[in-house]
Design brief:
Layout (H helix, E strand, L loop, with lengths): L6 H4 L13 E10 L2 E6 L5 E5 L4 E6 L5 E7 L11 E6 L8 E8 L4 E11 L9 E3 L3 E8 L7 E6 L5 E5 L17 E5 L34 E4 L6 E4 L6 E5 L5 E7 L4 E2 L5 E2 L2 E2 L15 E4 L7 E6 L18 E5 L5 E6 L4 E3 L19 E6 L5 E8 L2 E9 L3 E5 L11 E4 L10 E7 L9 E6 L4 E2 L2 E2 L2 E2 L9 E2 L3 E6 L1 E3 L2 E7 L10 E9 L8 E10 L2
Parallel strand pairs: 14-18
Antiparallel strand pairs: 1-28, 2-3, 3-4, 4-5, 6-7, 7-8, 8-9, 8-10, 11-12, 12-13, 13-14, 15-16, 16-17, 17-21, 19-20, 22-23, 23-24, 24-25, 26-27, 27-28, 29-41, 30-31, 31-39, 32-37, 32-40, 33-34, 35-36, 38-39, 40-41
């Protein structure tokens, strides 16, 4: 992140309330922490998080009333605004390999390094905080840290079992283009063949995995996965395909989000800052990977933080919903805004808004000071909030209740405009019956009414939604959903009732669906029909 003196005391940002879409809540799990900066999970759901300045490695057991305990500390840190204990990752073979990896500065050597710690105690008890750090083993040392600037600091294991690490350019911009320099890079390391005991350091040759793009020169190049980065403080790896999403903090013009899908990508810094030319180095400008999103650095500070790709089990109790699967989230540390991107095939775009969303562009607003985040196996998005070097917490964003929200508008017929709504208090709850109503109809037998149910409000086959139905003889009417099921609704007076049973199937948790009514109105238009507004539900 940028070299700023305690930014929280210098910048008077708006004190907006935390705003999330309908049916979501921020839940505080661990308050009073000393500037937590990174987190990861044990397979049983316990959260491991670290504190940047104290060097503490802590465990949070949500299954035990959010109990917190300290496993131990990383000694000998060199601490400043951007230095200290910056990243943590849990070995994917836990508990067979009960190791925790830390990315941190070192005072004595004036370098950055990755250190592995064995853990003992209750390795598989989700309710226990009985864990202790053992003897440090230096995995990688000698990474440059000449200035207290641009240390980067993220560690993640990929689905390939390799350990990925982000290195900042150490305020030496053109070194990001030098494959032999440990600056401005994304590394990919093999750590599962290292000795289980000892203190290290490992030889760099021991860390080279198959598939890395550079054979040399030197002993750093074979560890490099991508080049041309400035300060990639946080990144995430898509568990479905191994693509790496990087939030790279820029200089004065642009912050960017990059998606690295293959080995050897060059992100362009410092030839480019986002898509904007910045400065030249020796040689010619590289063919650089274009960002999937970028933001102009305005009058206020900006520091984009990667939050993660939504990939959780279909039976996760707090799954966001099927419509979120594969979407990518990121935030700005200072403004607390959250964006949600979706792959449209031809590129990544802002995902369609959901009910209660802050704006068409922003999925969330007012969640300040996030420094790291990750989706848990329970479906919730956990994050570290670092307000200052001595203040912070661990929190999570999770769904709360089933939701229903109307959207779009109906079109008027000879009797008026039909309105799709719900019975008072009815929501699409797992194992219940969701009661929808179509109101404003004439008395039977006039205006037979059909309920249409679908799972998309963006595309009907290949046709974008909403679709203007004037083309089929219904001027002023729109199809707001892609119907997959339709049925005749029961009429009582001026109202049609629609009872939708929700099976008690765990896989439906978070499933979103869409509904709209189709009403016959003979002679009113060429087709003899009108439609209601639409509605969107999420099952919980």
């Amino acid at each position: 992140m940028r070299n700023l003196v305690l930014v929280a005391t210098l910048v008077a940002f708006d004190t907006k309330a935390q705003i999330l879409p309908a049916g979501f809540v921020v839940e505080t799990l661990a308050v009073g922490q000393v500037g937590p900066t990174s987190l990861d999970f044990l397979p049983d759901g316990r959260v491991l998080f670290v504190e940047q300045d104290t060097g503490a490695v802590k465990v949070l057991a949500t299954a035990s009333g959010n109990a917190v305990a300290t496993l131990g500390t990383v000694p000998g840190l060199r601490v400043s605004y951007s230095q200290g204990l910056l990243g943590v990752a849990v070995d994917p073979q836990w508990p067979m390999r009960p190791f925790v990896y830390c990315y941190h500065t070192n005072m004595a050597a004036a370098d950055l390094r990755i250190t592995r710690f064995p853990v003992t105690g209750d390795l598989t008890n989700a309710a226990s905080t009985n864990l202790q750090l053992g003897q440090a083993f230096v995995v990688l040392q000698g990474l440059p840290d000449a200035t207290p600037l641009h240390e980067a600091g993220c560690l993640r294991f990929g689905p390939d079992g390799m350990l990925y690490a982000s290195l900042g350019d150490d305020a030496d911009a053109c070194a990001a283009q030098d494959v032999t320099a440990g600056k401005g890079k994304l590394l990919r390391l093999r750590v599962d063949t290292l000795p289980a005991t000892g203190v290290g350091p490992a030889l760099r040759a021991q860390l080279v995995p198959p598939g890395n793009p550079f054979a040399g020169p030197g002993d750093m190049a074979p560890l490099v996965w991508a080049t041309g980065l400035r300060n990639p403080f946080r990144f995430h790896i898509d568990a479905a395909n191994g693509a790496v999403f990087v939030a790279d903090v820029g200089n004065q013009q642009r912050d960017e989000i990059d998606r690295i899908a293959s080995a050897g990508a060059n992100l362009g810094w410092p030839w480019f800052e986002g898509s904007v030319p910045f400065t030249s180095c020796s040689g010619t400008a590289p063919t650089s990977l274009a960002p999937i999103a970028e933001h102009t650095v305005g009058a206020q500070f900006l520091a984009l933080i990667s939050l993660g790709v939504c990939r959780v089990p279909t039976n996760a109790p707090w799954r966001f919903g099927a419509g979120y699967d594969g979407d990518y989230f990121y935030t700005d540390h200072f403004s607390g805004r959250i964006w949600r991107l979706r792959n449209q095939g031809s590129g990544w775009v802002i995902a369609p808004p959901v009910p209660g969303q802050f704006s068409d562009e922003l999925w969330g607003e007012g969640l300040y000071w996030i420094v790291d985040a990750k989706f848990g196996q329970d479906g919730a998005l956990y994050y570290c909030e670092r307000v200052a070097s001595t203040v912070g917490s661990v929190r999570r964003i999770r769904p709360t209740t089933a939701t229903w929200s109307a959207f779009g508008s109906g079109c008027g017929g000879s009797f008026g405009t039909p309105v799709l709504t719900t019975a008072a208090g009815s929501l699409p709850v797992l194992g219940g019956t969701f009661q929808m109503l179509v109101q404003g109809l004439p008395l039977p037998p006039m205006a037979p009414t059909f309920g249409m149910l679908g799972f998309s409000k963006t595309l009907w086959g290949t046709v974008p939604l909403p679709f203007d139905l004037a083309a089929i003889g219904m001027p002023g009417c729109r199809a707001w959903i892609a119907p997959e099921v339709s049925l005749v609704l029961t009429r009582t007076g001026n109202t049609a009732t629609w009872a939708l049973p929700i099976p008690a199937a765990a896989g439906l948790v978070g499933q979103d669906f869409y509904a709209q009514a189709f009403v016959l109105d003979a002679g009113w238009n060429a087709l003899g029909a009108v439609v209601s507004n639409a509605g969107e539900g999420v099952i919980r």
